[in-house]
Design a protein that fits this description.
Elements (H helix, E strand, L loop, with lengths): L1 H16 L2 H7 L16 E4 L20 H15 L31 E3 L10 H13 L21 H4 L19 E6 L3 E6 L5 E5 L16 E7 L2 E7 L15 E10 L2 E9 L8 E10 L14 H12 L2
Antiparallel strand pairs: 1-3, 1-10, 2-10, 3-4, 4-5, 6-7, 7-8, 8-9, 9-10
Length: 321
C-alpha cells in the first residue's frame, strides 16, 4: 500500500512540475520590472531536482518522460540514495531524512543536458583522460574526501574544495542540483548582479557596466563573472578560474555562459553553456528550471566548530613525510 501511495504522489508531482519549461515557452510571460526598468529576477530560487544531468543509457532515444516513467524514475532514485531504502548491500551515507533533493524530476526531459541532443556530456579529450588516469594512480587507496598524501596545500584531492569549505559541491559554478542546500538568492542593482548560494554562502558579484574581464593572470576560485542583458535574459559570462571547481572535471580554462530568464511568476529558467576545449571535445549546454522559494535563505555554517578538520590536514601532512 505504501509503495502504491508513493508512486501516486510522484505521478501527481511529475504532472505538476515536469512541464514547467514547456509551459513557459508556450505561454508568453513578461517579467516584472525593477525601478530602473530591468527584468526583476530577485528572490530566492530553489534548483533541487531528481532529473539526471545525463540521459540514462536505458533511456537512450527517449527525450521526455511520461508521467508514469517520471514517477518510477523518481522513486527508484530516492530508494537508491537512501540508507533506509537501499536493498543492494551498498554503503549509503545517509537516510532520506537528511536529503533535500526533492521528490520528483522538475522537467519533462530525461536529462538536464539539452545539447548535445542525445542528452549526454561530450567525451573528454585524450589529454584530460590521461590526467584523470594519473590522478587515480596517485590516489589509489585514498578516500575521495582526503587530500593526496603530502599534497594538502596544492593537491586537495577531487573533494578538497568542498571538504575545506572553499566551494560547495552544487554551487560549481555552475550550479547543479545536489543532495541539499539547493537555493540561490539573486540581487540586482542598476550596475551589478549578485548570485549568492546557500551552500558555503558563496557570492559572485557580476558587473553590468560592460567592463572587460580581469587580466588572464588574475584568477579566482569562482571565476571572473561579467553580466549583460540579452532582452529579458540576464547573461553571466565567467572566465579566469583559479583551478578546478566542484563541477564535472572542470579546469582553469573553462568558460561559462549562464542565462537567467524569468519564464513564469514562480519559475526562473537557468541555462548554462560549458566550454573548455582542454577538457571536453565540444561545448555543451544544460538547463534547470528553478522554483521560487518564499522563505528566506539561512546561513550554512560549513566548518565552524569542526575539530575534525585539523586532524584531517595533520594526518595528510604526516602521511607525506
Amino acid at each position: 500500500m505504501r509503495h502504491r501511495l508513493l508512486v501516486a504522489l510522484l505521478i501527481a508531482a511529475a504532472a505538476v512540475l515536469a512541464p514547467v519549461a514547456a509551459v513557459a515557452q508556450s505561454e508568453p510571460y513578461t517579467a516584472p520590472r525593477t525601478a530602473w526598468g530591468a527584468p526583476d529576477l530577485q528572490g530566492v530560487w530553489d534548483f533541487r531536482s531528481l532529473t539526471p544531468m545525463e540521459r540514462p543509457t536505458d533511456l537512450a532515444g527517449t527525450e521526455t518522460f511520461t508521467d508514469e516513467q517520471a514517477a518510477e524514475f523518481s522513486e527508484e532514485t530516492i530508494r537508491r540514495r537512501s540508507r533506509d531504502m537501499d536493498t543492494s548491500g551498498r554503503v549509503v551515507p545517509y537516510n532520506d531524512f537528511w536529503f533535500d533533493e526533492g521528490i520528483s524530476v522538475t522537467t519533462e526531459r530525461t536529462s538536464l543536458v539539452i545539447d548535445p541532443p542525445d542528452g549526454r556530456i561530450p567525451a573528454l579529450t585524450p589529454t584530460k583522460q590521461r590526467s584523470l588516469a594519473e590522478m587515480r594512480r596517485a590516489r589509489r587507496g585514498v578516500d575521495p574526501d582526503a587530500p593526496t598524501p603530502g599534497g594538502f596545500v596544492e593537491d586537495l584531492g577531487p573533494g578538497g574544495p568542498r571538504v575545506r569549505c572553499i566551494l560547495g559541491f552544487n554551487t560549481g559554478p555552475p550550479m547543479t542540483p545536489g543532495a541539499y542546500n539547493n537555493n540561490m538568492q539573486l540581487f540586482q542593482t542598476e550596475d551589478h548582479v549578485v548570485i549568492m548560494n546557500e551552500m558555503i554562502n558563496d557570492s559572485r558579484i557580476a558587473p553590468l557596466d560592460g567592463r572587460a574581464h580581469l587580466p588572464a593572470g588574475v584568477r579566482q576560485w569562482s571565476g571572473d563573472p561579467r553580466a549583460h542583458w540579452d532582452g529579458d535574459t540576464l547573461v553571466v559570462e565567467s572566465t579566469n578560474f583559479l583551478r578546478e571547481t566542484m563541477f564535472s572535471n572542470s579546469g582553469p580554462n573553462m568558460r561559462l555562459t549562464e542565462r537567467f530568464t524569468r519564464v513564469a511568476e514562480d519559475t526562473l529558467l537557468y541555462e548554462v553553456t560549458v566550454s573548455d576545449p582542454t577538457v571536453w571535445t565540444s561545448d555543451w549546454t544544460f538547463a534547470v528550471p528553478m522554483q521560487r522559494n518564499p522563505h528566506p535563505m539561512y546561513e550554512y555554517a560549513c566548518h565552524e566548530g569542526n575539530y575534525g578538520l585539523y586532524n584531517i590536514l595533520a594526518g595528510a601532512s604526516a602521511g607525506g613525510n
